[in-house]
Amino acid sequence: MSRADSSPSRRAFIGVTGAVAAAGLTSGCESPAPTPGQHSSPASTPQASASTTQVSPTGRHQAGITLPQPAQPNLLAVVADLGDAVAVGPLLAELGQAVRTLTAGTDPRLLGLAPGDLTVTIGVGPRLVRRADPALPGAADLPRFSREQIAPQARGGDLLIQICASDPLLLPVVAAALVQQAGHRIRERWRQSARRGPNVAVDKDVSAPRNLLGFIDGIVGPRTTAEHQRHLWLTGPAPVAGGTIAVVRRMELDLPRFAALSVADQEAVFGRRRATGVPLSGGTAAGDPNLGAKTPDGRYLVPADAHIRRANPNVVGVGLMLRRSYSTDEPTPGLLFISFQNDIRTFTHTLTRMDDSDALLRFTTTTASATFLILPGFDQQHPLGAKTFH
């Protein structure tokens, strides 16, 4: 459900779109895996109707990135601009305080709804980062890529509000509260609601959802604390340490054309078996594909244009992305791609290589695109954004 140009107050209570199957396109990225000791059935992990386990909004990192695990089934992303005269620091501090009361269940704007596992993740766009310090991570805009049909209001933005919860009723209510908190200081560009389906177990303590094309996706990515430190979290300079860089892109998927392919041809597009996620070169779903493996007549088992070859981080020469993508069904079936990484080149170099000849991109059209510095965590003594925007 995308929105542009109408007033935020009228939009704020628009409901969440219907459910669709779970998301994921970039196999060089990972959705959060279950925590140690959390087990999935061989087929899938059923989604609870609404989790009652609260997720703390405070700490070194914002919630809604690695926590909770697995990711909640419902998401609403709101992208907005700030007026030129707006004081960024006070606005962020107000939003952070509102997040605290909303997730605690003490904010009357919840209208009596229980917050459950509600998380709100807030990021600022490159224009605001450059205003604070052009040398900071997150100051660079995303370049343009092929297969984009993006209206001006759907490219870029100053503010990202990512709202996730098990209870879909919370999403528009929380968005309304935060938009009301910001008031005339922001102008909404677009919003998108989306869903994830159940996770599928692919290895011990590793699971990922299926995408709308029927494949298990988001298998590869940072899982351990050490990998999070290496690939996900910013470590410096001090104002952004503990934050990360988000890429948000909305894509339409050509489901009829993909569905018309044989299963073998669909598997050749991804480079994986549709039923199990195992690479066409063999092994296990969570293992690295053998990109050099060939048939007796000399053909690569993983085709040259297969997605797992073109997006492979070792081939591209970049780090790993952590991905929290969701599927959409309005305005058309597609994907709200969301990746987190501590270097924007992890995404841009990967997509540049995919742009060249990735078979999967033939079935996608990108209709919105933006990048944001996800601010470090906050608490009562250290307001959201205080280290970056004084």
Name some characteristics of this structure.
390 residues; alpha+beta; two-stranded antiparallel sheet; 22% helix; disordered N terminus
Notes on the structure:
The protein is of the alpha+beta class. Helices cover 22% and strands 20% of the residues. It has ten helices and twelve strands. Strand 6 and strand 7 (206-209) form a beta hairpin. Helix 2 packs antiparallel against helix 4. The protein is globular. The two termini are 35 Å apart.
The helicity comes to 10-25%
What's the story with the biggest beta sheet?
Answer: 10 strands, mixed
Compute the number of helices: 10
DSSP strand (E) fraction?
Answer: 15-25%
Summary of the model, kept short:
This protein is an alpha+beta fold and 390 residues long.
Write the layout of secondary structure elements.
Layout lengths: L7 H4 L17 E2 L43 E9 L5 H17 L14 E6 L1 H7 L26 E7 L4 H13 L3 E10 L3 E5 L2 E4 L15 H8 L11 E10 L1 H5 L3 H8 L36 H4 L2 H4 L4 E3 L2 E3 L5 E8 L2 H14 L6 E11 L16
Parallel strand pairs: 1-9
Antiparallel strand pairs: 2-4, 2-5, 3-4, 3-12, 6-7, 8-11, 8-12, 9-11, 10-11
Helix pairs in contact: 2-4
